[in-house]
TrEMBL record:
<feature type="transmembrane region" description="Helical">
    <location>
        <begin position="103"/>
        <end position="123"/>
    </location>
</feature>
<dbReference type="InterPro" id="IPR013783">
    <property type="entry name" value="Ig-like_fold"/>
</dbReference>
<feature type="transmembrane region" description="Helical">
    <location>
        <begin position="129"/>
        <end position="149"/>
    </location>
</feature>
<feature type="transmembrane region" description="Helical">
    <location>
        <begin position="264"/>
        <end position="282"/>
    </location>
</feature>
<feature type="transmembrane region" description="Helical">
    <location>
        <begin position="294"/>
        <end position="312"/>
    </location>
</feature>
<keyword id="KW-0472">Membrane</keyword>
<protein>
    <submittedName>
        <fullName>Membrane protein</fullName>
    </submittedName>
</protein>
<feature type="transmembrane region" description="Helical">
    <location>
        <begin position="211"/>
        <end position="232"/>
    </location>
</feature>
<keyword id="KW-0812">Transmembrane</keyword>
<feature type="transmembrane region" description="Helical">
    <location>
        <begin position="170"/>
        <end position="191"/>
    </location>
</feature>
<keyword id="KW-1133">Transmembrane helix</keyword>
Amino acid sequence: MAVQEAGQGGGSAAGGHGGGCSCGDCPHGARAGHRRAVAEFLLKRDGFAAGQGLPAAVAHSASASRQWVSEELTQSAELVAVRGRAEGEAWLARLWLRTATGVWALVVVLLLVQAFTAIGAGWTSARTAGLLAALVTAGALTAASWFHRARGGALAPVIGEDNRLSTSRAVAGAWVLFVAYAVLVLVGRLAAASGHGERDALIAGLELGRAAGVVTVLAVVCAIAVLVRRVVGVRVLGQRLQKVRADRPRAADLLTDDSGRGSFADIQYVVIGGVALLFAAVRLARRPDQLPDLPWGLAVVVLISAATYLAGKYAEGGRPVILSVVRAREAGDLDAPIRTGDDVEIRGAGFVPPGAHGADRLSRMVVRVGAVHVRVPLVPVAGGFSNPTDAVLTVPVPADVEPGRVEVQVVTAAGVETNRYVIDVTE
């Protein structure tokens, strides 16, 4: 598909949308430009991996050709990154309308459910209060979507600083909306109540003794959302956690880590929180005269899930580390000490931060060899890159490095520095 798009790129654009458009209102602008840039990059990378496209001036030298290929891929990757950011901004600008449409679709579903369940039982004031509460909630969310239309609409509060959906904020936001809806239902019933006894019963339904489980869960999930933000921020500033910004948020962010792999801590938190929220919603539908009384057994399960999620946030990540540096040896080479101009292989862990496997991120990696900063060259292979990787980097020792004991240090794409490793460079 990417090859076909690259081949048809010259004829698929029309007018002012030839791939460079980044406006958020045009469906053929930023998205088409990003897809075309990705297709061109993939063609170039796979061509270089197959040994095609090298100029004769550098083809005779392995180091020169590697450096030239790396520079070409870096420039192409930067264009892909620019197009990706433009597409992400355009996607966020369109998201507010989708979120507003989804909210009102839920209101329609609620109306249909109430209409079907009212057959035989009749329409009650509780159903009217529930529908009016839904209309008020949907109106508030729509207004919030409009004012935050450039940042994702109603989803803006649950989008983290790394431009990903935050699991803790999403769970806390869901519980806040549910509790607000439940209170609005009681407010609507209280406004329609005619007798003193009915009004007193509705007010008693707000007592803490009847809703201690829900209140406890709400307090804990909100505290977790605030605490997780603090924990992540402190660990990033302390270089104990690597974070790179995503092009745009995705629904999968709620269940995965930054690299896109499923995260047990996130999945169990979303699943258990969602099940408990569904139970509370059924309790509210059955007894709309009080806040839903979440059983303490279920509330404790949610608290254990929240504690597991928080522990997972403390345990994830880690600072990258260099374990060893050795001279890279090709087939037929003699064993020898490290000299200027030789390639060295840096072995360790955590060199590629989660979510930084794109070429634009990999090209930002730097190795300090003494006082010289060396860009890590991109070495393409079919479907990806053989250098750099998360555990191994290969870089040349520059000619400007003085012989003697030299410190080597890796700076990752997230700006985190590894430990310093000392090597001996001979003349």
